[in-house]
Amino acid sequence: MLLSLMLVSVCLVGCGEIPEMKFASHPRVDELMPPAQEVVKSTIDKHFGEPDAIVAWSKLPVEFGMLEGEVTEIKDGAKDGQKTLTVELDETEVDLQGDTLEFYREDEETGEDVADFLRVLSYDAESGTLVASGENFPEEESEIFVGGHGLKDGQRLYMKHCLHCHGVTGDGDGPTANYLNPKPRDFRLGLFKYKSTDYAEKPSHADLMRTLDEGIAGTYMPSFKLLEEDEKKAIVEYVRWLSMRGEIEKRLIDFFEAEFSILAWEETQEEGEEAMEGLKLDFQDIVVEELPFELDAVASQIGRKWELADDESSLVKPTVARVADTQESRLRGQKYYVSSKCITCHGPLGYGDGSETETYKTDPLTNVTYSEPGLYDAWGTLVKPRNLRLGQFRGGRRPIDVFRRIKGGIPGTPMQAFSTSLKDEEIWDVVNYVLSLPHSDPAVEINQRANLETTDTSKSSLAGSEGE
Amino acid sequence: MKKLWSLFFIFWPIAAIVIFAISPSMQWWFPGEAKSPIGARIDDLFYLILVLTGVVFVGTQVALGYVLWRASSVKADDKAWYTHGNHKLELIWTVIPALVLLFIAFKQMDVWAEFRIVDRVAEEIRNNPVAEVTARQFEWRMRYPAPGKKLGIIPAPDDMHQVNELVLPVGRKVVINLRTEDVQHSFFAPQFRVKQDAVPGKMIPVWFEVTEPGEYDLVCAELCGWGHYKMRAVIRALPEAEYQTFLAELYEESMSDGFVAEGEAAAEGEGAAAEDSASAESEEE
Hints:
The structure holds two protein chains of two kinds. Chain A contains 14 helices and ten strands. Chain A has helices spanning 2-12, 34-48, 152-161, 163-166, 205-214, 229-257, 262-271, 273-309, 327-339, 342-346, 399-408, 424-436, 442-455, 460-463; strands at residues 49-50, 53-54, 67-76, 82-89, 100-106, 113-124, 129-133, 143-147, 375-376, 382-383. In chain A, helix 5 (205-214) packs across helix 6, helix 9 crosses helix 12 and helix 11 crosses helix 12. Chain A is globular. The model of chain A is unreliable at 457-468 (pLDDT under 50). Chain A is an alpha+beta fold. The longest helix of chain A is centred in the middle third of the chain and has 37 residues, at 273-309. Chain B has two domains: 2-116; 123-240, Cupredoxins -  blue copper proteins (Immunoglobulin-like, Sandwich). In chain B, the strands form two sheets. Chain B has a five-stranded mixed sheet with strand order 3-2-1-5-8. In chain B, helix 1 (2-22) runs antiparallel to helix 2 (37-72) and helix 2 (37-72) runs antiparallel to helix 3. The longest helix of chain B is centred in the N-terminal third of the chain and has 36 residues, at 37-72. The radius of gyration of chain B is 28 Å and the shape is elongated.
């Protein structure tokens, strides 16, 4: 008896309440003055919700499973803040419980139309009625969008496979992140390194799928090839949404940062009561008059970029076929490697030990010099230029992958795009050179260069990298 | 109460037989028949040992139950009967198990040799491994030689790579080279009954033959870290002709330059049309 009691208690150890999952605010929010912090947090919360109650905002190009329709009748619900709506949707056989209902209403203060959201508590497909809770409700015959269930699968799978590194918020700070180097990607800057689109563009669906399929060699990102195709698609959709959430949050912080930082707040506090009132009024004005437009503009802009990424025109593609991989081509590639300054980061022999790794850089955001010398990425982490002799290619090892890394650059890192400084033929020469590095002996290369210099001056234009 | 204990011990051999009898139909058994000749031989050994141990288990349990049953009716003042020191009995239960063990030891030797002694693999096959499988936390990375080439120990520029997918031909013995990039892993293909540890710093050849085309599991069987459970891959076994086509396609894919000649580009581009089909699919993905 005692034994079985002990066994049961052992089994229950660690089975407490599951902690509630919350999206974390970006730490930069704390640099805003307190009312601005509140506004950013509530705006993001209103348009994105929390993990257990996400908001489907029709402005974003995400597959929320969004249904369009119209409210035909509104009745009071059983409780305060609940109403029963009769709706006509373009599809009925869907479980909408937990979804959000989006509608537009006139703002009392500005008279402009603003998006508002209700939470769908239950939905009866037969009668077309749903019970929803919220503060404001749409008027009869107004247009509505109901959705959110489209992200459920993606969220569940993300929680299962991705969260422990990339975090609930997609901030790259999951429980295992502390033990990883390189760090898991923080999606919130909207920057993705390995993609097939132009430098300034977002990754396409296919790019994110490829990363899931192939993993990223040399990092902790494993391949998720054996997940079902629709499971991977669902994860990609959720990651896109998390990234949009983070980037919009960042842009809102940027919006307030100049005038309404915590520093401005503290300085005004010292100036006295009157100045404080002035600041608060200014802030109120901005929130009422400009914020809705800013939010709208930012969301549209970011949404458009994500949509554009899937467009054929965003694709980085060579205008010429790969230049034949000959010794001459490689030598030309080596020349461009030097003249295009690849050498300053990747080093004279491609070991990733260029002079830039020894120089002290300053943080572009704070203008403070980093304590460690070397190159830093947009996330503020020290990054090593790739050692090109390892034969490890994070963004893929096909010639086209290496071509895209050079022509399209690697966003968020010091690896810029060479689409303007090098012609496609020249990029292919560099590709041929780079792809040959893991398989060639650096000692032989050094000897070769020395020989070419001393014995064959007439060909130095072809091979003379040392002279430049 | 005394009878209860004898029933308790009689219950177990009966339960064991029942469970073994129903388990194949309940999917508690092996994942299907072995899909490799060596797997079939390993299964034969398994069944042989299962029968031997099964007979002994049932026999000893029945004997135990019988003794307990009889002893339950013995009166308290009856004198005990000792068997200890019975020379003949001791001889029997020492020599018979020893013979059985010896029999198993010799019987399995050839299977073991077939599975692990490298000389058993024809030199031709041994020198031409079809792939190098590198385990790492937490995925499998495969490297194949380009069609018509030999797989080198050091990667070659035209090697072909795949993640979490190992494609093999059916109907012939193949060798793969097993390595690990970080910690110890174990290459486990349950349908082939093949399991081999991957040890840091070592390249271990593993050989087997797949008898039927299909998709099979490849999992890690050595606890290698927190992501051990997700370290799985698929082995796709293809008939020889399809296998060769697969290799050719993979080669095209891994050499893809993403260049699609279209309209005027095709007219003036030299040799562009030839590249066209090769690179088209990379754009489609």
